[in-house]
Automatic annotation (TrEMBL), chain A:
Record organism: Pseudomonas abyssi
InterPro entries: AvModA-like_subst-bd, ModA, ModA/WtpA
Binding partners and assembly: The complex is composed of two ATP-binding proteins (ModC), two transmembrane proteins (ModB) and a solute-binding protein (ModA).
GO biological process, one term: molybdate ion transport
Listed SUPFAM superfamilies: Periplasmic binding protein-like II
Keyword annotations from UniProtKB, A to Z: Metal-binding, Molybdenum, Signal, Tungsten
Protein name: Molybdate ABC transporter substrate-binding protein
N-terminal signal peptide: 1-21
Record-linked Pfam families: SBP_bac_11
Binding sites annotated in the UniProt record for molybdate: T58, I166
From TrEMBL, chain B:
Gene name as annotated: modB
Keyword Ribosomal protein tagged: no
Species for this entry: Pseudomonas abyssi
Membrane topology: Multi-pass membrane protein
PANTHER family per record: MOLYBDENUM TRANSPORT SYSTEM PERMEASE, MOLYBDENUM TRANSPORT SYSTEM PERMEASE PROTEIN MODB
Protein name: Molybdenum transport system permease
Chain ranges of the ABC transmembrane type-1 domain: 13-217
């Protein structure tokens, strides 16, 4: 007698639980990988909803979304792609907002290499400078703006190597194949400290602000968990995590 | 109507052809002796070496690319060697891509040649030996001509497989115009930049080119020796 009862209870729980707690599929720009993992964990604990996150470059994620990928929330690395999602009729209009403002860093895995980043760039005392693909990655575009502002576009062009996302750019530098590279500050800093190697936080005046926008996609319009996640991203807990990783809010 | 490919696309096509040709040449030079050894040896090493050669058939290109990136880097074994030789490090260079492609396409060249050598059997070589041919003579005047179909298959497959290489190049290339930006990477760039029209032109070109190569190979009736599926 006991076993069927237990079974019935288990069934009830497993059926009733998803009704209370939903699931949300999120497409997340590669630079926001680490903070998103923290935020997702806290969000899951606080709300009981489950977050399924996929990480990639903004362009790549957009291509997937426009071809029917089942994402419900899109956290891009820029503000133009979510706007485009909206004008292409893929996203719920009026749901867009800036969840983080990115900061750019010049980083080296070598702890002694960078003290004054601008000076190092001028000296050209390195073989390879890694940047993210400026056509597809906002941090890559910001990197080209910095080089332009410093008047070094021509001088540095032969040294450039491009990663397809900011994640791959980080990998080029971390493996030592490129001595220096422009990465997201969030990748190399925690609580205002550089976690490894040496870095120069690029002055914000040298590039256009990297506004990272979030948008609710049509597929998630009726999903409570998706709405809850977007709310959560605007809240204080998320803000704390976001600034801990070196983003502006 | 002008060709809808810009100069960057054409540079990528040229670079890809150059990479595939050079890789095939290098593979024929090192793959032929290796195939000969594998076809005739009774060494215990035959098993492990065969497996090593076949690895790229089953490994995801990202695994190969990742290890190459680490190995070619200043702290990796190949990187340390090339730095000592005064060559610097080879990631993000055309030479680096050739090394990567040679590893990546190795089984597609070695296996057909090895099959060809094995199917010749001992008989023709023994006959040549009784007629006074030296081992080197036997290799060049008997084995190689008899293995010709296998060698042609190997060249075509090595070339075609390198044309389609993507994962390894993406991991170690760095997307540098005229040095490491091959067609597959350029297609990826177009897709990422949402320029689907250009992507279609290049992708369609690769599709047709690969199809024609395999069709020609098939008409020779040699496709049976093709090793396993590729990624």
């Amino acid at each position: 007698m006991r076993l069927p009862l237990l079974f019935a209870t288990a069934c009830c729980i497993s059926i009733s639980h998803p009704a209370l707690a939903g699931e949300v599929q999120v497409a997340v720009a590669a630079n926001f990988t680490a903070p998103m993992q923290d935020i997702a964990k806290a969000f899951e604990q606080d709300t009981g909803h489950r977050v399924i996150a996929a990480f990639g470059s903004t362009g790549q994620l957009y291509a997937q979304i426009s071809h029917g990928a089942p994402f419900e929330v899109f956290l891009a690395a820029d503000d133009t792609t979510p706007a485009r999602a909206e004008s292409d009729g893929l996203a719920v209009s009026g749901s867009r907002f800036t969840y983080a403002t990115g900061a750019l860093a010049l980083w080296s895995a070598d702890a002694g290499l960078i003290s004054d980043g601008a000076q190092l760039l001028r000296s050209g005392n390195f073989e390879h400078l890694a940047i993210a693909n400026p056509k597809t990655a906002p941090y890559g575009l910001a990197a080209t703006q910095v080089m332009q502002q410093l008047g070094l576009t021509q001088a540095l062009a032969p040294k450039l190597v491009e990663g397809q996302s900011i994640g791959q750019t980080y990998q080029f530098v971390a493996s030592g194949n490129a001595e220096v590279g422009f990465v997201a500050l969030s990748q190399v800093s925690r609580d205002g400290e550089i976690t490894s190697g040496s870095a120069w936080q690029v002055p914000a005046a040298l590039y256009q602000p990297i506004r990272q926008d979030a948008v609710l996609l049509n597929t998630g319009a009726d999903n409570d968990a998706a709405a809850a996640l977007l709310d959560y991203l605007k809240g204080e807990q998320a803000a704390a995590v976001i600034s801990r990783y070196g983003y502006g809010h | 109507m002008s060709l809808p490919l810009d100069s960057a696309d054409l540079a990528a096509i040229w670079l890809t052809l150059k990479l595939a040709s050079l890789t095939t040449l290098v593979l024929l030079l090192i793959g032929t002796p290796l195939a000969w050894w594998l076809a005739h040896t009774r060494s215990r090493l035959k098993g492990p070496i065969s497996a090593l050669v076949a690895l790229p058939l089953v490994l995801p290109p990202t695994v190969l690319g990742f290890y190459l990136l680490v190995a070619l880097g200043p702290h990796g074994p190949i990187g340390a060697l090339t730095q000592q030789l005064g060559l610097g490090t080879l990631a993000f260079s055309f030479s680096g891509l050739v090394i990567g492609s040679v590893c990546y396409s190795m089984p597609f060249v070695v296996q057909p040649i090895q099959n060809a050598f094995e199917s010749i059997g001992k008989r023709p070589l023994e006959v040549a030996a009784t007629l006074g041919a030296s081992p080197l003579d036997r290799f060049f005047t008997v084995a190689l001509p008899l293995a010709r179909p296998g060698i042609i298959t190997a060249s075509v497959l090595g070339f075609a497989h390198t044309l389609g290489e993507f994962g390894v190049v993406l991991m170690i290339g760095g997307n540098i115009p005229e040095r490491t930006r091959v067609v597959s990477v350029q297609i990826f760039n177009h897709v990422e930049a949402m320029d689907y029209a250009s992507a279609h032109w290049l992708a369609g070109g690769v599709l047709i080119c690969s199809f024609v190569i395999l069709l020609l190979l098939n008409r020779r009736g040699r496709l049976t020796v093709m090793p396993g599926a590729r990624r």
